Structure formats: structure tokens, C-alpha cells
Amino acid sequence: MGQQRDNLPPEVTRFIGRRRDVPAIIAAIDQYRLVTLRGAGGVGKTRLALRVAGEIRDTFADGSWLVELSALRDYELLPAAVAAALGLPDEAAGDPLEALAASLAELELLLVLDTCEHLVEASGSLARTLLAAAPGLRILTTSREPLGVPAEHAMLIGPLELPTAGWSRPPGPGADQADAVALFVDRAQAAVPEFALSSANAGTVGELCRRLDGIPLALELAAVRLRGMPADEILSRLTDRFRILGAARTATGRHRTLRAAIAWSYDLCTPAEQRLWAELSVFPAGFGLAAAEQVCGPGTAKTLIRLVEKSVVQYSDGSRRYQLLDTMREFGAERLARTAAGTDPGPPLAGAGELRARHRDYYRDLAAAGAAAGVGAEQAGWLARLGAEADNLRSALEFSFAPGGQQDEGLLLTTLLRPYWLMVGQFTEGRRWHDLAVGVSPGSREHAWAVFGAGVLAVQQGDLSAGAPLLDQAAALAAASGDENLAAHVSDAQGIVAFNAGDLETAQARYEAALASYQRIGFGDPLALVTYSRLASACILTGALDRAVQLCEECLRRCDETGEQWARGTALWVRGATRWLSGDITAAIADSLSCLRIKESVNDLHTIAMSFDLLSVCRVATAEFELAAVLHGAGEALWALLNAPVLMGPGYAEIRKSGADTARAALGEERFDELLSRGLAMHLADALAMAKGETPADGVLAGEPGPAAGKQLTRREKEIAALVAAGLGNREIAARLFLSKRTVDSHMEHIFTKLGFSSRTQLASWVLGQGKGQ
């Protein structure tokens, strides 16, 4: 997350209305740390939350971040979903929620949890834990009901403002009109550019908005219908449907209004459109055209385009992906369920089980293609594509492992995704699915690989006590079946166990055995290629530097033959470390920077941290002690973010310590600690830019903040600091800024912590100094 300040999607339509809601929510977030926007489906909670998050993003040092929960069904994966949305690593062993809390502890951001109603208890528990661990965190959630957390401030989001009864004339030029009318007219003009609000149709539009209770989703569905019928006919058809359902205007009535609008839109679809709408509900999130065609059958493309035109399905030009809104998905899923029960008079539909099996098969094949392309030039593209399909892959796994499901397919999909989880550092999620997979089909080839996967993922998290026995079991299974590829992978992983324990002799023997096998049978995945680098690392620590360079260059040659990048970056790092030990500092720096660029492109935070460490000791060797101290701090920050020990064995840890000690001795304790703190506080993007020489280090070394560096004050904190310098007390500041005194007290604590001050006099002097320097 250090390379950007939000993940908020761009607004594709104009935001209309909510003139009182937006500032009220912003004020609530300033006063309360957990704010929930509650209300019926379709009322616009998500759009409102995103608008608020965008407006106040820059008041948080670490920005605003969206976590979409509608596709998540397994509450145990909630922490992993949040970490993934934030771009945080999932490498640490232990409780995922505790690891997430530790990662957020020093950050200051707004976390938007969207669509929590199906995970209310889990979302509440997550919010309690994160808020207790991270003083700079604010959480904004959307849900049809409150989370039930004591510190929660729930705000009911109602429909848009309606025109008064009897309203029949459009306002004059420049005059305001009811928000519901403004939204309908805006969307109507997008659908039919020549549409205009006039005295002739204003009464009809006003009544239409009232009939739809000002619910944004219902208004948008009605507006798009203007392509095929005039407004008075739309109103007539809606009136007939509401007469059947009744017209209560309670909260339940509003839900009924939305349901009636969706059902009316469904009724106006052709049988083919109705069938596709229902069948698409098996996708938990976004999907591509190829996926829709395999799951829903031939002829899908043309029908899908018509559903986009009718605003049933959303389409993004940027990602070229489609998505049903949650409310639309729920309606389609109900149709599928009614078909299974024989109570739906609509067009014949495939059963939900059959559709989910097709869905699973498509994503199984996608995972297989990604695994097969793992050592090719399109590796980075496949990693990104599998990441984009995380919700669909998770849904496919859930379906396969469900009671009465097809667990053999789940086992196969798990083994196909093992390289992906290892390469992108999604160790916790990978272990969860492997824990289910190891109980399926004992004696099969896939079962043996699942046992290995469970073991190597545990080892990568530093959980050697759990991983080592599983690897022993996998070794026995490989020997019994004669699977040399599996045996080589197990041997390599056992080498990692020995290396991290400091047993270099055993580690080298295990790596040698694995490499010899791969050279006979071929390198089937990037993890096999990395064995060259693992063995080279052992050679470095035993003093065999020439052999280490030779191994790295052989790995680079093989990577260059196929265009592979992930293993190539690791080999560059190890060769750089060897050159550093040999005294060729210039070459070592060049290799480190080449590695850094590759690992940045695939977001390999583990190796980025190692690159900062290597560059730090290289700068010590060139007597650039100040830069070395900052780089060491940046590496420390990443290791803390990974929430795992430095998993390179005691030899690596000693080299890191020795470099830091040398810099400390050269600079003095106070100066070293000052620069170390700057490195610790830098955003990842700034640290990467400085390490690569893309931005000068002089400003950081002189104590000048970069564009996003350090724990800078937020906009609100700057306002408060300026008022302190003007001589105002906390109570006076609260009155001036319309805040509670408790909120100002909290801001003051954050300001003092960030700047290292202990008095208001220090803060006032600092503010005045900042003004002189500008």
C-alpha cells in the first residue's frame, strides 16, 4: 500500500444529492472511530461511502482503502481479504487477525468495509480488534444492519429527497430540484440524450420518483427504460405492480419498492435476458466474457450486452469485466432457487449446482493455465490475472469442499494454486485450503502434493514445527509413488528448514539433491528455479563464492531462455550479495537495483526487504553511512510489515546487524537513530524511489520530508497545530473547528508522537519554523 494512497474505484456516473449526508458523515468519522451507514439495499450506501472516503482521503497520512465484502462467504478469510485490499502481506504464521492488527498498528488510514450484512459478527469482531490495535485507524462500514459494536456510531441512510406532492413544473434556470428528480433526469439523459424535463412530463417524472421512494437503484433502472418506452408508460407499469404488492411506506415498504422495481425490470427482459440474469448470479464478483460464456452457454455475449444497456449488469472499460450489483445478484439467485424448487414460472434454468460446477471448472482451467505459464514471459500477467480472480477462485474452492461437493476437484484446484500463493506471499490463505485438501483422496498424486504444499507454506511462515513433519510425510509419499518432481520439491523445502535453523551442511545437501533432480527432469515452475539461488545462498555462507556466482548465472541463463522474472529477481539478489562479499560493490549495487525493479513489479515484499538490506550494507562499504542507516530503517519497516522473522537464518541476521553496527559507530548513536527513524517512517514508494536513485536522498538525510515520506501531519492535524501556535487551548480549538474536546485531545497525542515533541511550546516553534521555510 505504500505505493498508492487509495484503491477507490473512479466514479463512472455523476454523484448527485446527499448535500447534508456527506458533511454529516465526515463529521461523524472525525468524532467516532467506527461509523456504519445502514439502510436498505439500493439506497446508495456504497456510493455515499466512496464519495466520503475520496473527499477525506488526504486527511489521513495513509489514505482511504476499500474492502469489498459482498463476494466473501467464509468469515475466517475476512482478515486476509482486508490485507489483500490494503496490499499488505499474508506471510506471517499465527492468527491472521492479530497479524493484520500488527500491520496496521502504526498506520493512519480510513478503512471502508462495504457490504457487511452477511458477516455482521465477524466484521464487528474485526473492527474491535483493529481499532484497539491501531490508534490512527478509522472504519466506515456499509450494512443493512449495525455491527453491534459498543463504539459504533450507526447512521440511517434514507432515500433521496422527493418532490412535493402535486409537483408538476420543472424549476427555472439555475434553481435546485429534488435530488430524486435530479438523479432520474441525469440518468435519463445518459440513456436518451434528447430527454429533457419539461412542463409536459414533470408531473409524470415527479410521481415516478415518489412511486420509487427516491431509491437510487430503482430510479436508475427506471431511467434506462426510457430507451424503449415513454415516462408515462413506465409509470403505468410500475403502478400496476405496486397495486399488486401493496404500497406501504415503511422501511419494509421501501425494500418492497426496490424489489418491485427490480422485478418489474426483470419482467420487461426477454426470456433469454431473464435466464442469463439468474445464471450470472453464480459469479460472486466481477467476471470476464469468456467466463460468462463457459458458465452460461453460447449466445451469452449479445444477451450480456443487452443487460448492460438495461443497467442490470455493470461493465468497466478499464478492466473489461462485468459485474452484477449485489441486489441484482440476490434477485437472480432467488430465481435459481425457485427454479430448483419448481416454483418459478419463468424460463427454464440450469440448476445452481450445475452452474457452480461449470464456474468451478472454468476457474480450475484458468488456474491450470496460470501454473503452466509460470516459467514463461507472461508470468507477471498471470499473477495479476489470478489476483483479479481471487473471489471467483475462492468461490470455486468453497463449492468444491462443501459437504456433498466434489472434493477431488477442490484438491486439484488447491494444488494448481500452490505456486501462485507461494509467489505472491498469500501463505495464510494457501494453508487454509491445504488444510482441507490433505484429508481428500489419500494415496492419490494430488494428495501427496497437497501434503507438501501444507508443509512448505508452513515453513515459509516460519512455522517449522508444523511444516517439518508434513514435509517428512510428503517425502515418504514421493518415494512410494516414484514422483521425482515431488521428491525434488520436498528436498528443496527441507533445505529451507535446515538453512533457517543454521544447519548449512544439511541445507546444502538438500538443495544439491533437489537441483540434480530438476536438471534431469526439468524446471516445471519458478519455485524449482529458485533452488539455484537457495543453494547459492548456502555457498555464500560457507565461503564458496565462485560456486555461488556460477549457480546464479546458470539460473539467470535459464530464466532468460523463457522470459521468467520472479526467480530471475531472486538470482540477481543472491549474485549481488556474493559480489558484495567479494568486494565488487559497484556490481553488487547494480544487481540489487535490478532485483528491486523486478520484485517491485510483482509486489514481492519479502525480497524487496532483502534488497533494502543488501543496499544498506553496500552503502556501508562505500562509506555512505547516512544513506545506509535510512535504508536499514526502510528494511526494518518492511520486516515489521511482514510480521515474520527474518527468515534467512542466523548468518543473514548477523550480516544485517554488522552493517548497522558499522554505520552506528561511524555516525554516532544519536545521528544513526535519527536516520534509522526516517527510514522506518518512509512510505514504501518513497523508499523504493530513494533506493533506486529516482529521487535524491539529500532531502531525507537533511531531515526534509518527501512528497509522502514519514509520518507527516494530516490536514486536520496541521490545522490544530497552527491553532496551538496561535495560543489556543484544546477546548478553544474544539469550538473553533466544531469538534469535541476529546477528538482534539486525541489529535494532539498523535501530533506529539509523530513529531517527537513533549510540549506545546515545541510544537508552536516547529509551526513557526515551517512557515519560515516555505
Question: What composes the largest sheet?
Answer: 5 strands, parallel
What is the β-strand count? 7
Shape verdict:
globular
Count of alpha and pi helical runs: 37
Which structural class matches the secondary elements?
mainly alpha
| Rg computed from alpha carbons, rounded to a whole number of angstroms | 29 Å
| Percentage of residues in helical conformation | 55-70%
Distance N to C terminus: 29 Å
Spans with pLDDT under 50 lasting ≥5 residues?
244-252, 705-711
% residues in beta strands: under 5%
Output the strand order for the largest sheet: 2-3-4-1-5
* Arithmetic mean of pLDDT: 87
Report on this model:
The strands form two sheets. Strands 2-3-4-1-5 form a five-stranded parallel β-sheet, with helices on both faces. 51% of the residues are buried. Helix 5 (120-133) links the parallel strand 3 and strand 4. It has 774 residues and is mainly alpha-helical. 64% of the residues lie in helices and 5% in strands. The chain starts with 20 loop residues before the first helix and ends with a helix. Residues 244-252 and 705-711 have low confidence and may be disordered. The protein is globular and about 90 Å long. The longest helix has 21 residues, at 352-372.
